[in-house]
Amino acid sequence: MRIAEIDGPRLHYRIDGNPDGAPVVFANSLGTDLRLWDQVMPILPQEYCYIRYDKRGHGLSDCPEGPYSMGALVSDVEKLLDFLGVKDCVFVGLSIGGMIAQGLAAKRMDLVRAMVLSNTGAKIGTREMWADRIAAVDAGGIEALADPILERWFSKSFRDTPAFWAWHNMLIRQTKTGYMGCCSAIAGTDFITPTSGLRLPALGIAGSEDGSTPPDLVRETIDLIPGSDFKLIRGAGHLPCVEKPEEYAQILTDFLKAQGHG
Ligand SMILES: O=C(O)CC1=CCC(=O)O1
Question: What is the distance in A from the centroid of ligand 1 to the CA of 96?
């Protein structure tokens, strides 16, 4: 169990693979913690240093009072990477994690050499949509919204498996403060202009059954970056690293190898 004491909330993080290898950083989605990557980690090439963390308000990291801003979420991971001495990484972000990736790449070109934008957008939903979700969670707790959220996260066939319940339980045990804080950060984020200015190797990954960030949104976002690539994982929803870990790991492996990172 590792905790980074930074100027800000304490962040829980984990390192897998080769601690001396080239760094690859993972940022996960709203309502999940760093276990999101558990299934892909052991099947990725073990020469890289894989760093994953719980963003503020999630997992075992501190949970300050909200609302949070995207700037604060970006600054947290920037401080974590400075704390760890990371100078040059490939950044993999899923959903809100993909927004953090875009914000970090725009702010610290020195730190992000390439990025993977998975199941995300430069802008996700509308302010009104997020305000409604915050109000509903505030009134009834996350459990009241769990069914529609999980329908967007997973394909029907995955929802019929026992593993589904682990993700259900992760979601409903998420603190309301952290969840609503991050909803506010997403509501206030429109990265279309900054992401259009990015010039770095970039890959978009979408799930054909993703009801939160559908393939068209991921494609529109990744197309903002000249020379980027796009992969569609069929039969997976918003969290393809959970539903299709082998396919997801292969796509990441091919991207990492193509970067000559390390
Ligand atoms: O919970 C959802 O609807 C999916 C989602 C949107 C942003 C994020 O991080 O997760």
Answer: 7
Q: What are 233-249's pLDDT values in tens digits?
A: 999 999 999 999 999 99
Encoded amino acid at 147, one letter: D
Domain harbouring 27, CATH code: 3.40.50.1820
Sequence-distant (6+) residues with CB within 8 A of 125 are 186, 187
Pocket test of ligand 1: the residue of 28, 29, 153, 184 to mutate, having most ligand atoms within 8 Å of its CB, is 29
Distance separating alpha carbons of residues 218 and 157, to the nearest angstrom: 23
Tokens 């279309």 sit at which residue? Answer: 192
Counted domains in the chain: 1
Tell me, what's the pLDDT at 241?
Answer: 98
- Asked whether 168 lines ligand 1 (CB < 6 A), one says no
**Assembly ipTM:** 0.94
**Domain containing residue 253:** 2-258
Q: How far is the CA of 108 from the centre of ligand 1 (A)?
A: 25
Q: Does 236 sit in the ligand 1 pocket, CB within 6 Å? A: no
Residue 199 tokens, joined: 């010039």
